[in-house]
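Usage

Read records sequentially. Each one opens with the input sequence:
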Amino acid sequence: MTTPTQSAERLSTTTLLRFATAGSVDDGKSTLVGRLLHDSKSVLTDQLEAVEDASRKRGQEAPDLALLTDGLRAEREQGITIDVAYRYFATPRRRFILADTPGHVQYTRNMVTGASTAELTVILVDARHGVVEQTRRHAALTALLRVPQVVLAVNKMDLAGYAEPVFAAIAEEFTAYAASLGVPEITAIPISALAGDNVVEPSSHMDWYGGPTVLEHLETVPVSHDLTTCHARFPVQYVIRPQTAAHPDYRGYAGRIEAGAFRVGDPVTVLPSGHTSTVSGIDLLGRSVHTARAPQSVTLLLADDIDISRGDLIVESGDAPRTTQDVEATVCHVADRPLTVGQRVLVKHTTRTVKAIVKDIPSRLTLDDLSQHPTPGQLVANDIGRVVVRTAEPLALDPYARSRPTGSFLLIDPADGTTLSAGMAGGSFAAGATDAPEPDDAGWDF
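and closes with the structure output:
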């Protein structure tokens, strides 16, 4: 019998995969997630009993596994996903954080939220309908957010007679489209979420398919976006100065390593000031270590006394991002109130928050055909567009394509703290994007 301690030790040695699901309304996404949790024995007994009871009350003979994730009353009544539902589960081979995102076009902002940290996206397609407009939207958002892995789950194969030509045609069409957007890895799997075919267990109805099940692929897919191999980035959260008799001269900079690794002796640069020093020590969980990697939370000690405060970015010397006050980015507008040219906002980038003004909105992106509509004047909820923001203080942003943690930011309403837009610095994705014009500094009071 496995003890709690042994279970904790086993989980600590397994890798973590963050993935998101997306699909059009009635494609069976919530059923797939419920089947995945149920068949992988990741559902508690009382949860399953509650689903069975709710299903009986609705006149259903078999448990409706979609109820495991559709938690809002409106979701259960309408049979759709509205909010992002996060689920945490584990198998002996890997730990998972699942973001079950809504598929309807009016909840685009919810999918952006759920998929922004994902390393893989499962996109569902109804085998009877094939690749539809919303499927292309999900592929475009996945490419825009730089999610490195995509699984195309062709669902409801039982209603298509488990026909191989149906699956092959859909897989070919989707793969060609997603690849044109720059999605690097695409895996197509034929499934029936309702019947359980190829979700956790291999299907006896599709002997023509020799690939992995959904769970097997999730357990074995390489986590290619390894933050430890990226450029070293350390946003400072807090300056530790105990000034006690035991530590009279201790000055440490606490935070989480967002990317890369730091070692004692590494030359570093502090941004935006540009001052340089050397890592003289690294404290991790109350002990000194020689090396620390993303995403560990540590305290860095530097050889020189430098004016460093919350919001500064410590990077490896010779590999520093460019600091700028003119931020050109693609944003997804998530607030109900519009984003307009001339609007005053706050830009929150890692641990740094600065005042800014929206200088220009050059274009709005239509996900249906990836066309750009020039000078829309404003962005409303669920819109995706290009913006140029002028900040009061320099920011050290990486291009989002190079580093998702340090290339992303938020636009915030300074009046009430409402999040307005989620931004990705630099260009959009491979297809359908145009670069924003060069910023013009005339007339600015920063």
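Summary fields computed downstream for this record:
- DSSP finds nine helices and 25 strands in the chain.
- Confidence is low (pLDDT under 50) at residues 4-12, 71-82, 430-446.
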